[in-house]
Amino acid sequence: MKFSTIAIAAAALAAGVEGFSTVAAPRSVMRAAPLKMADAATDVDTKAALATAANEARGLAMDSIAAAHSGHMGLPLGCAEVGAVLYGSQMQYNPKDTQWINRDRFILSAGHGSMFLYSWLNLAGFDLSIEELKNFRQHHSQTPGHPEFPNSEHTTPGIECTTGPLGAGVSNAVGFAVSEKMAAARYNTEEHKIFGHHVFALAGDGCFQEGISAEAAQFAAHEKLDNLIILYDSNEVTLDKMAEYTQSEDIIKRYEAYGFETYEIDGHDLAVVEETIAAAKASDNGKPKFIKCNTIIGKGMEETEGTNAAHGEAGVPYVDKARASIGLPEEKWYVSEGTRDFFAGVQEKNGKIYDEWQNTYAAWKEANPDMAKELEDAVNDVTMPAEDMLAAIPEMGGDAEATRVSGYKVIQEIAKLVPNYISGSADLHGSTRNYINNGGNFGAGFDKSYAGKNLYFGIREHAMGAILNGIAYHGIFKASGSTFLVFVDYMRPTIRVASLAELNRVSYILTHDSIGVGEDGPTHQPVETVPGLRVIPNLDVFRPADAEETVAAYVSSVTRKEGPTALILSRQNLNQNTAMSAADRRAGAMKGGYIAKKETGDLDLIIIATGSEVQHALEAAADLPGARVVSMPCVELYERQSDDYKESILPSTVTKRIAMEAAVTPAWYKYASKVVGVDRFGFSAPGDIVMKELGMSAENLSAEIASMN
User: Fold this and answer.
1) Are 237 and 306 in contact (CB under 8 A)?
2) CA–CA distance from 492 to each of 250, 376, 587 (Å)?
3) What residue spans of 241-269 are helical by DSSP H?
4) Per-residue pLDDT, 410
5) 249 C-beta neighbours (distance < 10 Å), count
6) In this structure, are residues 333 and 66 in contact, taking their beta carbons and an 8 Å threshold?
7) How large is the average pLDDT for residues 139-151?
8) Rounded distance between C-alpha atoms, residue 368 and residue 81, angstroms
9) What pLDDT score was predicted for residue 24?
10) Is there a catalytic annotation at residue 461?
11) Pairing state of beta strands 594-597 and 627-631?
């Protein structure tokens, strides 16, 4: 191997092949079985190439952060050797086909260190130019402040997951691992193995202090997700203080207790990093892997390295000196010809693996045409058109029932029509009613298998949300998860990220939707929760009024392309609006809002309601010839309709309007001059009594309408 800048390699190897300066000895070189890795790089040229690449990646990060006067320098400098090994040796990927379904996945959970990822994507040959690195954190660049999954704002290749909220990415990685295990169980055959990749996540102290990562780790170990490899950037630093100021646990023992296979290594020793990752990949023992990489934050910048000052952009004034100290020339954003040549070789090696896989896939497809169509439809997000799906689902009937019960009936039909649809619950299947019959249970042990469509998340709502997002990011399955609506705040951050990442493959089934919960009292009676979800941009919030609207809600959730959907379902029975046909109710609900009862005289009043309150609106309007009832199960979907349609539903000439929902009232004043709602917490009593006492009745609505005259 030839290099145009031997000085870089010399600087990097000054302290031996492992790095360019010494690091405090870790507690143990490794906690694992003896390593065996036949194809780990051992020749000096390859080690020098990795060391050179590590330093040049440091240079790219320093230059980009200095140019932006913004960003986090510590991780890109401190984890450079880890990046070199991942992208230069151990990960299976193809920069020319970034959607290859059997590629290894890398998630930068510590998303603030985004220049780590952008630097390595550039070096590894992805379509992310030096110009984009120069535009780090600038408007319309492909290098935003935190990594963003390709969406309408950014289409950066090689980004598997939107990260930034600490702990979320490493928890998303569990979802990736779930999806890979599920895909392998469903689609691999004895003759052809088309799934068999690993999921890597790089996380820091902040990720492991956040409770979500503990929830997700428990789930991963319990379900024996041995395709998951977590790399812990253990640099002993957090933003405010050195890490010892706020933590004193033995994290290795914690992860061993969960059921992980654990390692502890010098994160700057290239040979050890490579051997350890290779061993983790080769270990199919039913244990996810946890590698504690002891590193120096901001390594190579002596003024800040090893301190919390290295965390942000405090090192910008020292960039030129640091670059010189590691052997980089004065030219900024410098990448040597030798490094480009080395990664061309990596691409050639991975290209051969890719080509062999393509041959295997072609043979598998020929042998399994039906399964291949199902998989390709799933990958390409091809579903039956919404209109056809609505027509394929039988009518629900006219008996009063809770929409969670309606949802149970509908989800069985959805699972038949959408083969890649899966669902799970945070220990509430019996109440949320989203279990897929004959779908099997996902996981290890008991009656579970990795092909199962039903996931048992335990009482871990936050992790459930992140795992669902990870499944969606992975790009094969459509995943839903359930809990009581009042507990959605445990997982709200994951819903927010799903919405901004435009994850249409995920939905949330949230039952027990109001004060109608009754006896459990105000701790379990959501009043602010539905309006709180509606303010999240790009989240469709569906609160259906009856069984047929519930059909539309589910169909919309699996056919929507722009983002996620929350399905808000009742505990208590609701009357069916049998005065309208099932088809008309479904079609109306698919527009977000529609006329549930048309006026029989001159229109002089519009009653707007949603969910369980539509039945009261219909009753109150029964003796009012000039009253129109508008059911608005999904405000967001209604707002996306044409102006002409919205004018036909809520004509601007009719200003006498009243809205009703068993929730806090402010948002409804956009549509109505008077709102009947619940601007207080509830109380413990039977649900019908709570509803009546707090004004959620046809009688009270009629009285409020009368007061408007």
Assistant:
1) yes
2) 30, 31, 30
3) 251-258
4) 98
5) 9
6) no
7) 96
8) 42
9) 33
10) yes
11) antiparallel
Residue 5 pLDDT > 80: no
Number of H helices, E strands in the chain: 27, 18
| Tokens 């120096």, located at residue | 296
Nearest to 608 by CA among 571, 640, 643, 656: 656
Q: Give residue 239's pLDDT band: very low, low, confident or very high (50, 70, 90).
A: confident
Catalytic residue among 180, 461, 548, 549: 461
Residue type, 436: I
Model pTM score: 0.94
Residue 337 banded pLDDT, cuts 50, 70, 90: very high
Please state, as a whole number, how many other Cβ atoms lie within 10 Å of the Cβ of residue 709. Answer: 6
Angle at 630 between CA 625 and CA 634, to 5 degrees: 175
Cβ neighbour number for residue 352 with a 10 Å cutoff: 10
- pLDDT one-digit tens code per residue, 465-486: 999 999 999 999 999 999 999 9
β-bridge partners, 511 = 484
Flag whether pLDDT at 696 surpasses 60.
Answer: yes
User: What is the C-alpha to C-alpha distance for residues 243 and 156, in angstroms, rounded to an integer?
Assistant: 33
Cβ(294)–Cβ(234) below 8 Å: yes
What residue has token string 């050639």?
A: 348
Q: Which CA distances in Å does 334 have to 58, 262, 489?
A: 10, 36, 46
Q: What percent of the chain has pLDDT over 70?
A: 94
Helix (H, G, I), strand (E, B) or coil at 646: helix
Is pLDDT at 8 greater than 50 in this prediction? Answer: no
Instruction: Count CB atoms within 10 A of the CB of residue 150.
Output: 18
Angle at alpha carbon of residue 632, lines to 631 and 635, rounded to 5°: 175
Rounded CA separation 203/231 (Å): 6
DSSP assigned state of 443: S
**Rounded to an integer, what distance in angstroms lies between the CA atom of residue 378 and that of residue 183?**
11
Per-residue tokens: 180: 């890979």
Q: In terms of DSSP H, where are the helices of 442-535?
A: 461-474, 492-500, 529-534
pLDDT tens digit sequence for 56-65: 999 999 999 9
> Which stretches within 69-129 are classed as H helix?
74-78, 80-85, 114-123
The tokens of 263 are what? 């390692």
In terms of C-beta density within 10 A (0-12 exposed, 13-18 middle, 19 or more buried), how is residue 85 classed? buried
- 126 is written with which tokens? 């992805």
What does the alpha-carbon distance between residue 362 and residue 601 come to, in Å, rounded to a whole number?
Answer: 65
Name which of 698, 654, 690, 645 is nearest 521 in CA terms. 690
252-279 pLDDT tens trace: 999 999 999 999 999 999 999 999 999 9
